[in-house]
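INFO worker-7 received task bundle
INFO bundle size: 2
INFO processing item 0
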Amino acid sequence: MRARTSRRPPEFYMRMALDLARQSPAAPYPNPWVGCVIVRDGRVVGKGFHRGAGTRHAEVEALIDAGPQASGAALYVTLEPCCHHGRTPPCTDAILKAGIREVYYALKDPNPRVAGKGARILRRHGLMVRGGFCRREATALNDVYLKFQTTGMPFVTAKVATSLDGKIATRTGQSKWITDAEARRRARLLRAEHQAVLVGINTILSDDPHLGPRKAGSGEPWRIVLDSRLRIPCDCQAVKSGKCIVACTSQASAARKARLERAGVKVMTFKGKQVPLKALLKRLAREEIISLLVEGGGEVLGSFFDLRLVDRVDWFFSPVILGSAQSRVAVAGLGAARLDQACWLRDASIEKVGNSWRVRGRVPHSAGTQRT
């Protein structure tokens, strides 16, 4: 029996599903963004999207919306239906029970518990299953989830606010404010899009930043502080947020660690003299923190770039020139010895924000990808 669908191409309904996926009121991490549309006799009879871990998946939401009209219909979903028991039952079971006859999906789910198994189960039960529709758009939507599932690491965004000559403070250390109010507001909104915001201890000691979105109704991100010797004050805003993780080394004082833990801080301890960033990221991913905004300072950002841990850059430029070799730079670290080792952004865009500009781009993780 063929599903009673319209003659519109699958991409038409897949783009509807992608638009639905973006309607989640909050980032669903560590789960993916997923939208679903059910079509029968050329008419959309069911819609759904995933709202976060522990809630119903998009397919189930759409099946509930469609009710009996799902029988004999076609289902369009942005990610291959799951087939395992997690926080919720398998979507493949719900699809089969509803009598869906055709399934179209955008991306194969890289989660090892799915990874093609969901599609195979549906095919074994006689459904027509096809994938790969709107792959590029679906990949961009779920870049965070896809990186986590394929590497076990969080997706890292570097957020920087500088003068035109790339400085984050004058030679005397003055930094407030280089960018204008609108640029700062837009930068804070980035925090609401990520599960965690990371800074170094010097940023905490010099600025005592809030590190939250300061936006009503938005979720509060974790504040992650790199602090090898546990110098962070218990009365700083990061600690008082109630969602603070401090990464230190085994050389840190046990008494300071105990004092921070009594204040509600989660302390992660690593061997050596410096916090190993890759090991920290893997540990955060095991804690289901898979979306990370790195705000600095310069040495921290430099280390992330040197180790090729940055996936995306959001850089806010203000029309001011600070000058001086002694002014603090946005990205320190070792840096590139040759141009073909430099970080050349891909798919870069520029946007006017207040009296500043925002440059956003992806970081390719292979050498020699720059333009000539």
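INFO item 0 finished
INFO processing item 1
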Amino acid sequence: MPAPICPRCSTRNTVDSAFCRACGAALPSGSKSAVKPKVSIRVVRADGGPEIVVAMGGQELTCGARGDIPLEDDPFVAATQARFFFTGRRLAVEDVGGGNGIFLRLHQERELTTGGELRLGRQRLLLEPVPALTPGAGGAMVWGSPDVGYRFRLIQILEGGARGAAFLLRDGENLLGRESGDVTFPNDGFVSGRHAVLQVRQDRLFVRDVGSSNGTFFRLFAPTALDNGDHLLIGRELLRVEVSER
């Protein structure tokens, strides 16, 4: 099968690509006529109450305050926040509501670029760059402060979108947790003692979960393929993706 060419930007992608590596558009697939797998989306209840399970009967399923998957009592969810759809035989999701976004649970180490966001426990964290300081006249550092080498910082985003605390990230590993680490959230019972590690490698940053109970989630800014067992955070709601062959 030939490598697919993006219909939006004409970039040639790898044979197994579901989305364009350049612009994120869904790619054409030679298996469009094949029977699609069976898909259900489960709204997980942390309190043990009855769960909502919505089966995907067609080519598309929406989620939001007024979506096919109803999240009616969550003030942080748009009327239509997410769209589930098929690209070939692969299930995918995209954020169509903006605002507070949708987040996918991390399964392996992933690069986080500036402007990217994480959620762990009740925390929503935005990654920002820290520009390198440059010498002023005569070689002295601006404001008299030396550049200590920080290249990134995490900004805590509070409910309503206000900015909270800022955490500078040093080169190498930065541990996030509740009880110990470089960045701690001692009052958040949903953050594990050792939750995640952010590793700064020169001008790049990588994040990995270190066995937390409730997971580490990253925000989706482009259509993304999903697998059976994937978890999504939308507003305050946790969704589990269930995919099986018919």
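INFO item 1 finished
INFO post-check item 1: Residues 231 and 240 are 5 Å apart (CA to CA).
INFO post-check item 1: The chain is about 0% helix and 40% strand.
INFO worker-7 idle
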